[in-house]
Amino acid sequence: MTGSILNDVKLQLGIDTEDTDFDNQILDAINTVIVILRQLGVGPDSFMVSNSEATWNDYLGEDFPAFIDVVSYMYAKVRMIFDPPLSSAVNAALNQHISELEFRLNMQYEYNRFKTLTGKTGEENHYV
């Protein structure tokens, strides 16, 4: 996926990419999520989305395939920040989805860190 982060998030929120009325609020939410992702171990130390030019590949580069869940996480978190669901059931389901994605993203980070530190994949530790 090489699309614009801002435009992709706007489409998920049901906002036309040509409509710029809410861009500042959405950009604030996107950048908040980028900070959260960094705290989870995902993404570069300093990255901000300031317009529709920033792409997923700009953000994650060669790590993008390993962190494909970042896209779903970004949509879900921005939705909760920008336009939270009114239904408590939908709200709870979205929060559960976010929690699962946070766990998975953190596990992927730990796996990548293990590979970098040891040069191993961990597969040699599995019993047959």
Summarize this, please?
It is built from five helices and no strands.
Describe the model:
The chain is mostly helical and 128 residues long. The protein is built from five helices and no strands. It has one domain. The chain has helices at 5-12, 23-39, 56-60, 69-82, 88-118. The N and C termini lie far apart (36 Å). The model has no long low-confidence stretch (mean pLDDT 91).
Question: Layout of helices and strands, plus pairs?
Answer:
Layout: H1 5-12, H2 23-39, H3 56-60, H4 69-82, H5 88-118
Helix pairs in contact: 1-2, 2-4, 4-5
Output the keywords.
0% strand; mainly alpha; single chain; 128 residues; globular
The largest β sheet comes out as: none
Number of structural units classed as domains: 1
Number of strands: 0
Name the average pLDDT: 91
Beta-strand percent range:
under 5%
Q: SSE order in H/E notation? A: HHHHH
* Helical content band: 55-70%
What radius of gyration results from the CA coordinates? 16 Å
Multimeric organization:
single chain
Q: Which structural category fits the helices and strands?
A: mainly alpha
- Give me the number of helical elements: 5
First-to-last CA distance: 36 Å
Which regions contain 5 or more consecutive residues with pLDDT less than 50?
none
The global form is globular
